[in-house]
Design a protein that fits this description.
With about 350 residues, the chain is α+β, with helices and mostly antiparallel strands. It has 10 helices and 14 strands. A hairpin with a 4-residue loop joins strand 6 (about 125-135) and strand 7. GO terms for molecular function: ATP binding; glutamine synthetase activity.
């Protein structure tokens, strides 16, 4: 008799041409990922060849009950690490039946910015450091922490190894491999300063692909934690007090910054970010004021600062970039729950399109 695991792992390729496509979208809170699956007649590699689909927006906080249909437009395809074979994950964005982007569709505006000729000519590269915290199910307390109590103070956990310092590595490593399998340009992982907290990096990616890939990497992580019976939170400060928060540091460069003499372009871009500090902070994630306190490797939320190799600044320029006279910089302000479509496009808009 077949076991459940045998059936879950059934390879369909010998039995049928048909494939399963899991359509993924962002729900009404702006952080809740939703997905559902459909059968397609055969393998697909081009998102424009995929059918549009719809869902009940009144059940996701995105449409009223009397006019609840929201249309999914497929935008990016990834290999499905859960079903394997020719099956796919499809990142979608959301529209009304009349073809208007719904208010929570942040990809639409980002794609407009990235297709601006000035932005496209600069080929903006992004590397996003996504931090997150693993929680014990039902009690919402970090993995590896004693129930109702606290572990020893921070220090031994960052990039730590051993059963008393590293909690959830099986989840992290499964996620790493699943992302590589899917075609997400995940470039690394590490344990973070607070026990139970981890980070993965996505990049370098160009333009709108940065947002697509971070969202799909988050989706894969949520699916793996579901299997493991663990909860993942992207809250920027899951535990108050003397514990590090969680961010999504965004590394950024343009063609002009990567060329000789690029350091001057970096300084000009950072000065523009300083002038728009308030607008950026407002769009960089909810609850960020609990994280950006000026402590725990952060800059104070109300003050813009930048420096070379300074992890307590709003924007950090690497020592190597300074020495080479070209390279990239790191915006350290985005919270772990930021929308990568918003953050990546806003940085491009401010540094390339905006002429103060």
């Amino acid at each position: 008799m077949a076991l459940l695991t045998d059936l879950i792992n059934l390879d369909l390729t010998d039995a049928t041409e048909k494939i399963i496509a899991e359509y993924i979208w962002i729900g009404g809170s702006g952080m809740d990922l939703r997905s559902k699956a459909r059968t397609l007649p055969g393998p697909v590699t081009d998102p424009s060849k995929l059918p549009k689909w719809n869902y009940d927006g009144s059940s996701t906080g995105q449409a009223p009950g009397e006019d609840s249909e929201v249309i999914l437009y497929p935008q990016a395809i990834f290999k499905d690490p859960f079903r394997k074979g020719n099956n796919i994950l499809v990142m979608c964005d959301c529209y009304t039946p009349a073809g208007e982007p719904i208010p929570t569709n942040k990809r639409f505006n980002a794609a407009k910015i990235f297709s601006n000729p000035d932005v496209a000519a600069e080929e903006p590269w992004y590397g996003i450091e996504q931090e997150y915290t693993l929680l014990q199910k039902d009690i919402n307390w970090p993995l590896g922490w004693p129930v109702g109590g606290f572990p020893g103070p921070q220090g031994p956990y960052y990039c730590g190894i051993g059963a008393d310092k590293s909690f959830g590595r099986d989840i992290v490593d499964s996620h790493y491999k699943a992302c590589l399998f899917a075609g997400v340009n995940i470039s690394g992982i590490n344990g973070e300063v607070m026990p139970g907290q981890w980070e993965f990096q996505v990049g370098p990616t160009v333009g709108i692909a940065a947002g697509d890939q971070v969202w799909v990497a988050r989706y894969i992580l949520e699916r793996i934690t579901e299997i493991a019976g663990v909860v993942v939170t992207f809250d920027p400060k899951p535990i108050p007090g003397d514990w590090n928060g969680a961010g999504a540091h965004t590394n950024y460069s343009t063609e002009s910054m990567r060329k000789d003499g690029g350091f001057k372009v970096i300084v000009e871009a950072v000065e523009k970010l300083k002038l728009k500090h308030k607008e950026h902070i407002a769009a960089y994630g909810e609850g960020n004021e609990r994280r950006l306190t000026g402590k725990h490797e952060t800059a104070d939320i109300n003050t813009f600062s930048w420096g070379v190799a300074n992890r307590g600044a709003s924007v950090r320029v690497g020592r190597e970039t300074e020495q080479n006279g070209k390279g990239y910089f790191e915006d350290r302000r985005p919270a772990s729950n930021m929308d990568p479509y918003v953050v990546t496009s806003m940085i491009a808009e401010t540094t390339i399109m905006w002429k103060p």
